[in-house]
Amino acid sequence: MTPQSPSGANTWDNEHAKLPCSPNNVLKRAGKTISIWESIKSALTSPINSVDDFMDWNCKHLSAALHIKPDYVQLLPKIAQLALRLPELVTKPIPLLKRGAEGSVTLSQLQIACLLANAFYSTFTFRNSRDPQSEYSNFPLVNFASLFSKWHQNKNSSSVQKIVCILHYFSRIFADDFTGDGVVTFTRRCIADASSFASSDIKFNSISFGVSSISLIEDVHPDTMQVDFADPFLGGLFLNKGCAQEEILCCYRPEIIAGMIFMEAMECNEAFIIEGAERFSRYSGYFSTFQWTGNYDEIKDGHNSRTEDGHWKGVVVAIDAQHYRARGSSTQYTTESIQRELNKAYCGFTNILAPYKSLPDVVVSGNWGCGIFKGDRELKCLIQLMACAQSGKSLAYCAFSNSGFGEDALKVFKALCDKNCSVGAVLTALTTEFSKHS
Predict the structure, then answer these.
(1) Active-site annotation holder among 56, 88, 219, 228
(2) Pick among 3.40.50.300, 3.40.220.10, 3.40.120.10, 3.40.50.2000: CATH of 8-436
(3) pLDDT (tens digit per residue) in 138-155
(4) Is 246 a catalytic residue?
(5) Which of 121, 117, 105, 112 is nearest to 90 (CA)?
(6) Active site residue 341
């Protein structure tokens, strides 16, 4: 559904995102009912001409970002004005995409910009806590206040650079050539079980497999399915100190952040599909070395184009891997863990789940669930190959500067093809062999 017809902001229930502009968004104090939206309007129509106007909000990271890009100071009142257009731009309730049920939400780029402007000024009520007793405990945090206020002595910290990316995004939004009529679709998909994999006779030689040790996932051909090494909560720790692959994805494709408003945390049999999120920035580095390095243009730099329905070509697939750091890395070799990861990857890659249409034929991924998650790189690669074969997708694998691993992976794939191996046979062999050593 696309929020655009009249009536929406009045909706205030457990099935829809509670928009700041709703007349039901009130605070009762001393026997009086106070409209929170009226208070927001009062605050955002006050002069906002420098970071000094934020000092009561403890926005040290925002201040540091504006010192790096002082020309972005002029964006602050524009972002405030855009936030206040919420009742005009988002006039239909946005459903919460809750766990256990497939569903989609389509928003225009201008609607997303308005929602992100509200997140920038932290206007979303009840979205500042993950307390188990809070209403939105199983949803991501939304308000940017936590990102603005987290402080490190290094003014070039990754948190500051994340804010620079967001400010650059808004600078593009307010450019004369921005129309805002493109669309982004967020889909939650669910799969029942993985019982069919063990009996699968689909062969590995039915797909293609390529490896690069120098390419990044986002730099491969745009009309592909690009894997987000996701946290169960969309966006991961973007609004905190995190700056790994998913958080960086939100930096250069900030429209993804809008999904944090209405997408509940993923279950083990679920995946998120995001169609049409535009790339706005270039970057370098990772974790503490992350830096915004300039503008990115989908047409000039990415040679991308829009579909007939207004999406930029290309799909982001958010799938969360299991975390073995706490439970012990050996647990990933159990049948249960292998089935879980295979189920998760297949849920992300297949065409037979929501949005029930043909998605790009090539999955672009890499060391999913490795690194701090302690996943076995070779096993994770094989799991993704099985999921791709089962889905009828080819796999482009980014080995991230490890040419030796890439060469080994290609040898394994060639052997599987030469021996005409099926997904079911390899899965059975894996689980049987690992069970001998458990």
Answers:
(1) 228
(2) 3.40.220.10
(3) 999 999 998 988 655 565
(4) yes
(5) 112
(6) no
